[in-house]
Specification:
The complex is a heterodimer of chains A (498) and B (336). With 498 residues, chain A is α/β, with parallel strands linked by helices. Chain A is built from 17 helices and 20 strands. Chain A has 2 domains: 234 residues, Rossmann fold; 150 residues, 3-Layer(aba) Sandwich (Rossmann fold). The radius of gyration of chain B is 19 Å and the shape is globular. Chain B: It is found in: Cell membrane.
Chain lengths: 498, 336
């Protein structure tokens, strides 16, 4: 079969880093080729070479068998290579249609934009995707999932023959993922070659034809997705076999309650929620996107306080109107969006770890004891295994898993014994995921009370001692840790059909 | 200078951005040296002790205002009211000293308190009422300009009844000890204020939160930091520093000139920007601002010594601002 894209011996150096070492890769028309590897393995760099963002130091790029050079992203796009970035690159205040056609708006005379055509053509693309997005709707008002769909529509509008998707499902729920895959399969049937980057193994199994694994800037190998077990792919990625075992569920019936929530409500988002979290327990929260799990976390934490309801911490009722109240009560919140809500990326590891505890390390006139802070920061770097040269490294330079550990250290330093993790492993690679899981189990073992909100059912099943399931703002049930996916999905969609 | 240098070296930002920050400051400092060297060669009158003192004296008011607004700019905000606030503080000092006949310390306290209170108002508008800093302080700028004119009846207030008042900026404590080196008090005040603010930024909770607010305000809030309260405190502190600027200008002119003030805010912001502080917040140093203020003063003075027309001096200042920021962009692009 003729190849759509062929990369041969691609080499790329950055100052101090050999990012790509003679990488080979090929893509056939009408296939979904998954590209996998831990963060820093070189996937994104390779894709930036293919989309004209980076120039390789060595090697050849062939499109339809002919060698090409891709000096600019535009050159790549003109050859039919489209890319959907992991971080959405939409202009929030423009409409969906304006975003799709930005930079190449259909014109009328005197430089006027043909808004009617713009909207009609956007609508046509949405129609082929079977999406009911209003092209005139400002992007800011769309859910993250729909924004993602707009990105895909934009890539399709270039009539791309090669579509690079970088973790397209990171912000999507199961129903939306299924929708996305329908679109992916249709594009495949039309002969489009799709390079699919993802950390999620089950997705690879569902959608990919072949899998290429990268590690440390080189390709480890390419395998057929259908006849390769997941454990084999993971071991190719991390260079070792991972144990997928769940830690034993402790018997916590006698453990004291750390957090008791009753009759918590806020508008249509949260309706009469009540549950008890015990010391040493990991309570998983499952549900579809929009079920109200993040809203619940933000209400408990005071980021968007509840209208009514009672919260008790260690048996004592507390009033939580602001995050400050929650932190004082010993509650820490680890947002799904670490970069936006958890970290000051431009500040260093030490300052971020200290962020919630500064007054404790300051004297009467507010002078900070940097020496003491440096000591505790180094302590946490060691005990949590944060991989950083030292505590004065800017956190933006750390990998996702290590950034997450910095946020964990921040709350541990503040003596928070109730920790709410919202999507604790989003954007974190497989090897680091296992480490975060182990860390969560250790924290629970130390008596911390932990809530884990996750859209990945395997993650909830692996971590949680009990599983609370939400649907449309209601808590529809709490299952034991050994529950099956079917039981959870039943509760997660309870009453939705009616 | 050395005092600000040591205080800065321990800060998170200085540490975090040690290399790029040092490079940038080196660049600014090199430009300053180059300017001084250039003017010295071009005109024999430039590198004279008296002229150097005149440059420092000229930099003192703008420098103090710039150091104050550096705090606000690091939070990601802006303060357009500092020019007219400076004048309003000077006016209030005149009211207390000349009209009220009260002793000098009360006059000084009046300037500081007026500055801090107005900063408190600006800060509250920004933090609590969520008015964008540009708009809130634009409003304050006009309000304070009007108030200065109303209180004084548009006429200057002179400090002839308080002879020691002019010593605040024009006397020389250092000259009294080392006669060969008559550094005016205004310059001394600038360096003390700069050292103090550098210390606050580098060593205190207030300073750390200033950077945190500019770097990621929401993350700070979700860490349990009282972001609104700290922001108000920072605006109030900056206002108090502007009050010091008001004292300096009133002392130099031996009067509170109610029509003065507009335009000073932009000169101060220009000094901050030349000094390499990012207008998008999260990054900046007092030392950089100080160098920025000196560059502007050297430029104005040097061009005047070379008999360049004042209107051309303004043009050159504008070009310098653009070149300084463009150079910074290039350097950052290269770093990336």
């Amino acid at each position: 079969m003729s190849e759509l894209v062929r990369l041969e011996g691609i080499d790329k150096h950055f100052p101090g880093v050999h990012a790509l070492r003679a990488v080979g890769f090929d893509l056939r028309p009408g296939e979904v080729h998954a590209l996998m590897g831990e963060n820093g393995a070189g996937k994104s760099t390779l894709m930036k070479v293919l989309s004209g963002v980076y120039q390789p130091d060595g090697g050849r790029i062939l499109i339809d068998g002919a060698e090409v050079s891709l000096p600019t992203p535009k050159a790549a796009r003109d050859l039919g290579i489209g890319i959907i970035h992991q971080e959405l690159a939409l202009m929030r205040d423009l409409t969906a249609a304006q975003n799709i056609w930005i930079g190449r708006e259909p014109r009328l005379s005197f430089g006027r934009i043909d808004e009617a055509r713009l909207n009609a053509e956007a609508e046509a693309i949405f129609a082929t995707m079977r999406l009911g997005i209003d092209p005139r709707a400002p992007v800011a008002g769309l859910s993250i999932a729909l924004q993602q769909m707009v990105e895909i529509a934009k890539a399709l509008s270039f009539r791309s023959r090669v579509l690079i998707m970088d973790e397209p499902t990171a912000a999507l729920n199961d129903a939306e993922i299924a929708e996305l895959f329908t679109i992916v399969r249709r594009l495949r049937a039309e002969g489009v070659g799709i390079i699919y980057i993802s950390h999620k193994m089950d997705e690879i199994k569902r959608v990919a034809d072949r899998v290429t694994v990268m590690r440390d800037g080189a390709t480890v190998g390419t395998v057929e997705a259908a006849d390769t077990p997941i454990s084999r792919i993971i071991s190719m990625m991390v260079g070792r076999e991972l144990t997928e075992e769940k830690a034993a569920i402790p018997d916590l019936a006698a453990a004291p309650a750390a957090l008791e929530v009753s009759h918590l409500s806020r508008g249509a988002d949260l309706r009469d929620i009540g549950f008890t979290l015990r010391k040493g327990e990991i309570l998983g929260f499952a549900g579809l996107m929009g079920a109200g799990r993040t809203e619940l976390a933000r209400a408990i934490f005071g980021a968007e306080p509840a209208d009514t309801g009672e919260i008790r911490v260690h048996g004592r009722p507390v009033t939580i109107r602001t995050p400050r109240d929650a932190v004082r009560a010993g509650i820490g919140y680890l947002s799904e969006d670490r970069k936006q809500y958890g970290l000051a990326l431009g500040l260093d590891v030490r300052a971020n770890i200290a962020m919630a505890s500064l007054p404790r390390y300051a004297d009467r006139i507010g002078r900070i004891d940097e020496g003491a802070l440096a000591r505790v920061a180094r302590d946490y770097i060691r005990t949590l295994g944060i991989r950083t040269p030292d505590d004065t490294r800017e956190v933006r330079l750390l990998s996702g898993g290590n950034q997450q550990k910095v946020v964990i250290a921040k709350w541990l330093l503040r003596d928070c014994d109730i920790l709410i993790f919202d999507e604790p492993t989003r954007g974190i690679d497989v090897g680091a995921k296992a480490e975060i899981y182990r860390l969560l189990n250790e924290l629970a073992g130390l008596g911390k009370a932990i809530i884990v909100i996750s859209s990945e059912l395997p993650e909830v099943l692996r971590l949680a001692h009990r599983i609370a399931v939400m649907c449309e703002g209601r808590l529809t049930g709490i299952l034991p840790g050994g529950a099956s996916q079917e039981e959870i999905m039943e509760l997660a969609t309870e009453g939705m059909a009616a | 200078m050395s005092a600000t240098g040591t205080a800065q070296s321990g800060t998170t930002t200085a540490r975090a951005a040690r290399r790029s920050g040092a490079q940038r400051k080196l660049l600014a400092f090199a430009s300053l040296i180059l300017l001084v060297a250039g003017f010295s060669i071009a005109s024999p009158n430039f590198f004279q002790l008296s002229n150097i003192m005149a440059i420092l004296q000229a930099a003192s008011v703008n420098g103090v205002l710039a150091v104050g607004v550096t705090l606000i700019i690091i939070t990601g905000g802006i303060d357009l009211s500092i020019g007219t606030l400076m004048t309003f503080c000077a006016v209030m000092t005149g009211v207390v000293l000349t009209w009220g006949g009260m002793p000098l310390p009360l006059g000084i306290a009046a300037a500081l308190a007026t500055g801090a209170c107005c900063g408190l108002v600006s800060g509250t508008l920004v933090a609590k009422a969520k008015i964008p800093p540009f708009i809130a302080t634009l409003g304050m700028m006009l309000i304070l300009k009007g108030l200065s004119l109303i209180v004084t009846g548009t006429k200057p207030i002179y400090f002839n009844d308080t002879p020691s008042f002019t010593l605040i900026a024009q006397g020389s404590l250092i000259g009294a000890v080392v006669p060969a080196f008559p550094v005016p008090n205004g310059v001394l005040v600038l360096f003390v204020v700069a050292a103090a603010v550098a210390w606050i930024l580098g060593r205190t909770v207030l300073g750390r939160y200033t950077f945190a607010l500019g770097s990621n305000e929401e993350a700070a809030r979700l860490s349990g930091v009282n972001t609104d309260g700290w922001k108000i405190a920072i605006y109030a502190l900056a206002g108090g520093i502007v009050g010091i600027g008001g004292l300096l200008i009133a002392s130099r002119l031996n009067s509170a000139q109610p029509a003065l003030g507009l335009g000073y805010e932009l000169e101060a912001i220009a000094a901050v920007v030349i000094g390499g502080t990012s207008l998008s917040g999260g990054r900046g140093t007092v030392l950089g601002t100080l160098i920025g203020a000196l560059i502007m003063a050297v430029l104005t003075n040097g061009l005047r010594v070379m008999s360049v027309a004042p209107e051309w001096q303004t043009v050159v200042t504008g070009i310098i601002i653009i070149v300084a920021v463009y150079g910074d962009q290039l350097r950052r692009g290269a770093a990336r």
